[in-house]
## 1
Amino acid sequence: MKRLILILMLLAAPLWAVQPDEVLDDPVLESRARELSKELRCLVCRNESIDESNADLARDLRILLRERLVAGDSDTQAIDYIVDRYGEYVLLKPTTSGANWMLWLAGPLMLVTAAAMGWAFVRNRSTATTSAEAALNTEEQERLRRILDE
């Protein structure tokens, strides 16, 4: 029973990230804030959203996001404000504009390059064995055949 409780507590740990004093009174604004905070990266935890992180900076970002929403910003305006202030790194899913298109294309290009290099290696290797055997004269081929038969 203790193990089950421990497992449930560990699974619920991300839910504890948002403190009760951060929660907005308006449920619509709060749900918007929760959805937007899932798209923003915690700058301390690196691969966690600010919604899941317990870091102080993530808390500050959650509060800042909620302040912007209460001030009347739209979802894009609130995200743009935070991105302007902290940089595009704060987005968990970066945009595909500007220099980021190179980052988006780098993975598939490397995969295609590696596949082409692997195909060329295998192709050259298969032709290399036949050309090495062809380089043997008849006496060497006969000797090789005797060695292999033993």
Note: Residues 14-90 form a domain with the Helicase, Ruva Protein; domain 3 fold (CATH 1.10.8.640).
## 2
Amino acid sequence: MLIKNLFDYILALILLIFLVGLIILLIIISSINTNQFGLFTQNRVGKNGRIFKIYKIRSMKGFSTSSVTTKEHNITEFGQFLRDYKLDELPQLFNILKGEMSFVGPRPDVVGYADKLVDEDRIILNVKPGITGPAQLKYRNEDEILAQVENPIKYNDEVLWTDKVKINVDYVKNWSFIKDLNYIIKTVYTK
């Protein structure tokens, strides 16, 4: 794990040197596009169940209520572009530098999911969450999958989330630095 931590820190530092200008530009464009500050933060559950603020470039204008029970996300065209190319996640390089995240690991869940982990599944909380990993690669088109089902929240909770937990438990149990490098390469070269 020392190699993993050192790799994360050095790579994040190098990437930020080259990408900080792009991140600032995307935040400015997002601010104009969404009429809100372009850097989005949200509480997520990290290693050992600690709560931290994840950084993303804002891709939505917010929520609009079309009925009492339905909320629709207003993803802008620019926001969709950011999501398609995972550019909205570039600010997470700062999360890596702060020691809250890794390049590879289970995706950090919002509060309300990680606390549902029981028994062996809690092993996921023994590692830093990642920007990418096997579950993220498998469900790279998660938004499209959820858009095609009748009840996206139920489908996410009963199908996607449970499968991601299995994948992430396997990742933690069988971790290797070589596998991490492979996940990074697949992430870069897979759309």
Note: The chain is about 50% helix and 15% strand.
## 3
Amino acid sequence: MSRPPFLVPPAGVRAYSLATRRGGFAVLDAAPAGAPPLGTALLVPGFTGSKEDFIALLEPLAAAGFRAVSVDGRGQHETAGDREHRSYGLGALAEDVLAQAAELGEGPVHLLGHSLGGLISRGAVLRAAAGGREPFASLTLLASGAGRVARGQRWRARAVAAGLPTLGQRRLWWWVQPKADTSELWNFQRRRWMANEPAQLRRTGRTLCYEPDRVDALAATGVPVHVISGERDAAWPVPELDEMARRLGAHRTVIKGAEHSPNADRPVETAAALAAFWAGLPERS
């Protein structure tokens, strides 16, 4: 899970529930001051994550002229979920993203997904293309690969799925985060973990273990893609991300000093790379 560098939203960031045709979703929303945005970025978190994973990107993206909206997915943190596993299949979560994008107003929407959120966001782009829709001006895959995660991460996801019904969420937390402390961040991560719907954790963990390679289908949509990662990544090895970017004809950025969460490890550099990519895209008719 990402470790946000801070938890209090910067001045000008609004926290509210975004109403959509598929229900409400808790968001953090930052917009440029004094001018219409150059575009809107929809930021989708990964497994066990939340909107706060992007909190350090919001202010620099707004300063660069982009509205940035980070979201809790269905059954994540402050967005309600249910106990039905089908609610958390990749297709259902992709439809949630499409519904969120539809409510963000006029102008281009740049979709970004971190880790599992990248697989979900890719699914949203593919579903839109299959239906003849073009809701996204670009897709950024942030530390998210071509298909299922590396073997060690698959073992962890399966352990979470197996442990939830037997140990329960409270006990399993001590396996997920065995080193306790009294910091505000540790307490936040524990509250967030406990707020997640168990069915969501089990079903999305399965997606991480079994999602196939859909790179060729994504390339065929023609949506501009940006692949960003840190210098090291345990979920998808960096050479695999390099190869995925080559297959996609994607823009590629490696953030120095970052690992699986460049958004939290090096937010200023990550925001700069995102803004430069979005600003450099040609306008689509």
Note: The mean pLDDT is 95.
## 4
Amino acid sequence: MSTVENILAFNAQFVENRDYEQYRTTKFPDKKIAIVTCMDARLTELLPKALNLRNGDAKIIKNAGAIVTQPFGNIMRSILVAVYELGAEEVLVIGHHECGMTGLNSELVIQHMLERNISQETIRTLNNSGMHLERWLTGFDNVQESVERSVGIIKNHPLLPPGTPVHGMIIHPTTGKLDVVVDGYKQEVTA
């Protein structure tokens, strides 16, 4: 069986057995928080458990590195929707140690693309169109600085309601230990 066939077979049993009932909730986050975090597979179950979150407690927005790179990108739009339409009152940016975005080598990523049959012409065309793949595929050198930068972009966003607490944290991907980088109740952050 393929991966998708296994998923679908399990899903059929999940629905038939009504296992979904224990996860029923509304679209509004019970703890009124939105979390921006990394898509790292180690955090899938660890992060909610380490934060004492149950299904329905938070809006969790994931991407590579828990990075907010631009004030008018998809991540910021999701945060604003969570705040204005879904009842989130606080935002947490949670990066993690040992992140794959730390020291990401954009040239190596592009080399891997070429090895997987993306043409050099496609790469050249994107770069010539103003895409700047090398910059777009860049990670960060320091997770704390990355979290602080993302918190600053969110906190200083012209559409975020004034006074919205925006916190920055780093989680350990093995133990789940949280370290506060920015206390959104106390600090004013500038980007």
Note: The chain has seven helices and five strands.
